[in-house]
Amino acid sequence: MQPVAWLAMIDARWKPGGSLAEPGERHEEYQDLRCLLLDGAVERSNELVALAECIARACMGEDHLWHDLGLPSRAELSGLLQEHFSRLALLNVGGMRWKKFFYKQLCEQAGISVCRAPSCGVCALYGECFGNEELPLFGLAALV
Ligand code: SF4
Predict the structure, then answer these.
(1) Nearest residue CA, atom 3 of ligand 1?
(2) Half-sphere exposure of 12 toward its Cβ, with a 13 Å CA cutoff?
């Protein structure tokens, strides 16, 4: 799907002029995420820059990234990233949740680790990084 079609699906809150478009105090974090995405992009078009900026902003949302972006499920977000940010998406070999994966990449680039376990397989937080990303029942109920 073309970047412009993905942009049309994304929640307007994150787009320029949207209620959450400005990162405010989290500007540095936003810039790091934006760079991470653009470094992994397949091209540098205006539409892909706009997509990267929306995704970087939505990473600061409270919910699953796909949900905050307004996408139907994690599968669409995976499809978007694999199609247009494939150089980055290919690094997520374990299927880590995307937001966790982005922040882990930033930590690794900075030479720091927030992980206390020696590997994911023995980590008590495994479910938080790799668990399914369905909405909790109360979340679904709130949407209907
Ligand atoms: S599962 Fe544990 S070790 Fe793996 S990325 Fe998450 S916090 Fe780090």
Answers:
(1) 120
(2) 2
Q: Residue holding tokens 């930033």?
A: 106
Single-letter code of the amino acid located at 41 = A
Q: What is the pLDDT of residues 70-120, one digit of tens each?
A: 999 999 999 999 999 999 999 999 999 999 999 999 988 888 887 877 778
Q: How far apart are CA 95 and CA 86, in angstroms?
A: 14
Tell how far the Cα of 117 is from the centroid of ligand 1, in angstroms: 7
E strand or H helix that includes residue 66: helix 65-69
Atom of ligand 1 nearest to the CA of 118: 3
* Ligand 1 center from residue 79 Cα (angstroms): 23
Instruction: Give the DSSP per-residue string, 111-125.
Output: T-----SSSGGG-TT
In this prediction the pTM is: 0.86
Mean pLDDT across 8-35: 93
Lining residues, ligand 1, CB within 6 Å: 104, 115, 117, 120, 123, 125-126, 129
Segment 60-68 shows an average pLDDT of 94
